[in-house]
TrEMBL record:
InterPro entries in the cross-refs: Lipid-A_deacylase-rel (IPR018550)
Coiled coil: none
Keyword Signal set for record: yes
Keywords: Hydrolase, Signal
N-terminal signal peptide: 1-28
Pfam families assigned: PagL (PF09411)
Organism: Pararhodobacter marinus
Protein name (database record): Acyloxyacyl hydrolase
Taxonomy, superkingdom: Bacteria
Single annotated GO MF: hydrolase activity
Entry annotated with the keyword Repeat: no
Length: 166
């Protein structure tokens, strides 16, 4: 029995749309590793290592792209933080880019008490792309409990990182 014409057209349209979506260039996800040092606050001089995952961009417009991200950070004095939020990137041209992110997260104090287990991380930075898959960046971030605790000393961390897209 022949298939009704509208079902064939619908299948053809669906297959075409799926092929277009799968064949479209996508902004890649990335895994980022950075090492930094706290610049001021109760943990001044502490060394931090951070691993971040950036999901594929959920929006791209002009030179801007943005998407969800998650991060895990540990310090040489036993502090730990895990968070998730939104990250933005702006293409500055000639392989340079600016970045920023906001991530609330859970903080476990080792040697540095920041006043609460909920800490918010804001980050700004500038980076250089070697090619489509790898880049380095210099970032400055601030972690604070935004007044949730009776004490809110906050910390600033200057980091250098390597990013790998896949």
């Amino acid at each position: 029995m022949p298939m009704p014409r509208f079902l064939t057209a619908r299948r053809l349209a669906s297959a075409t749309a799926l092929a277009a979506l799968l064949g479209s260039p996508a902004v890649a996800q990335s895994l980022d590793f950075s090492v930094g040092r706290s610049m001021r606050g109760p943990s001044e001089g502490t060394i931090f290592a951070t691993l971040e995952y950036h999901a594929p961009a959920s929006f791209v417009s002009g030179g801007w792209s943005g998407g969800w991200a998650g991060a895990l950070r540990v310090s040489d004095d036993g502090d730990g933080w895990i968070g998730a939020g939104y990250a933005l990137e702006y293409d500055l041209g000639a392989n340079w880019y600016a970045q920023g992110s906001f991530m609330p997260g859970y903080y476990s104090a080792g040697g540095t008490a920041l006043g609460h287990s909920v800490e918010f991380r804001t980050l700004i930075g500038v980076g250089y792309r070697f090619d489509a898959l790898s880049s380095v960046d210099l970032t400055l971030d601030h972690m604070s409990n935004a007044g949730l605790g009776s004490s809110n000393p906050g910390i600033e961390i200057l980091s250098i990182g390597y990013n790998r897209r896949f």
